Amino acid sequence: MDLHLDAVTVAVDGHLLVRELSLTVGRGQTVGLVGPNGSGKSTALRCVYRALRPSRGVVRAGGEDLATVPRRKSARWIAALAQDGGTDLDFTVAEVVAMGRTPHLRGNRALSGRERELCDQAMAQLDIAHLADRGVLSLSGGERQRVLVARALVQEPKILVLDEPTNHLDVRHQIELLSLLKGTSLTVLVVLHDLNLAAATCDRIGVLSGGQLFAAGTPAEVFTADLVRNVFGVAATVVTHPLTGDPQLLYSLASANTSHPTPIGE
Ligand SMILES: Nc1ncnc2c1ncn2[C@@H]1O[C@H](COP(=O)(O)OP(=O)(O)OP(=O)(O)O)[C@@H](O)[C@H]1O
């Protein structure tokens, strides 16, 4: 299922948080959204998983305007890992993962054998099977993050929306999660702060600055020294990864520009 943001604008209390954002994630593609803190990435994602309704513009999934799709139906299509996702209640890991099936359940129906197998598979894939009976409140940040990704996979969505999914993850789990995203046939829109991991993972990149799309294209098209300087205010050298051919950015601490770049359009 493809995902299309068409001139999405979000205004809150007179502030434009996202302006005229148009972005397409083709079926099965992984598109990364990058940009400085406060540039509107999470706000854009919230419009996709319907935590927020755009003030103007349309979000379409499979050609249908999400604003007109019943919530139960879109909950089956779209799984989200939000920045502040999770629960304050001490469910077990297995229970939280099984909650991913909620949009598919009617009444009090118990999980089928296939659904339980799906949960076990996701827990094994995210390396949390050994934590199945632990309360989620006792987990480390990275363990909890992996539980939430497993819950999203168990939902068997067509579209996966993830806001900084590598938060709290050690380097092995970051690589494992992003390899999983790269290998999946799902349509994925993911916010990432690590530009090198974004370049290695994503088919296409959208760069937000000041709530607007500053650039979009393949990682090689987008990640140039000029762009990184203009958008992030940082000097970087772009090299090609010797094994994968992906563009990778080398930074030097001495090159940090402490004056923040001016948001586009101001
Ligand atoms: N309800 C609100 N009222 C006013 N401003 C808001 C509201 N929600 C978000 N903002 C502001 O909108 C801007 C965009 O926020 P958003 O969370 O989308 O940024 P982001 O690019 O995801 O940032 P980060 O990289 O720090 O997670 C920020 O400056 C934020 O303070």
Describe this protein's structure.
This protein is an alpha/beta fold and 266 residues long. Helices cover 30% and strands 29% of the residues. The chain is built from 9 helices and 12 strands. The protein has a 6-stranded mixed sheet, with helices on both faces. Strands 2-1-4-5 form a 4-stranded antiparallel sheet, with helices on one face. Helix 6 links the parallel strand 7 and strand 8. Helix 4 runs antiparallel to helix 5. The chain is globular, with a radius of gyration of 19 Å. The mean pLDDT is 90.
Distance between the termini: 36 Å
Please outline the major beta sheet: 6 strands, mixed
Element order, helices and strands? EEEHEEHEHHHEHEHEEHHEE
Main structural class:
alpha/beta
Oligomer: single chain
Let me know the number of strands: 12
Q: What's the helix and strand layout?
A:
Elements: E1 3-12, E2 15-25, E3 30-34, H1 41-48, E4 56-61, E5 64-65, H2 71-77, E6 78-81, H3 93-98, H4 113-125, H5 141-154, E7 159-163, H6 171-183, E8 187-191, H7 195-201, E9 204-209, E10 212-217, H8 219-222, H9 225-232, E11 234-240, E12 247-256
Parallel strand pairs: 3-8, 3-9, 6-7, 7-8
Antiparallel strand pairs: 1-2, 1-4, 4-5, 9-10, 11-12
Helix pairs in contact: 4-5
Organism: Plantactinospora solaniradicis
Domain ABC transporter: 3-235
GO molecular function: ATP binding
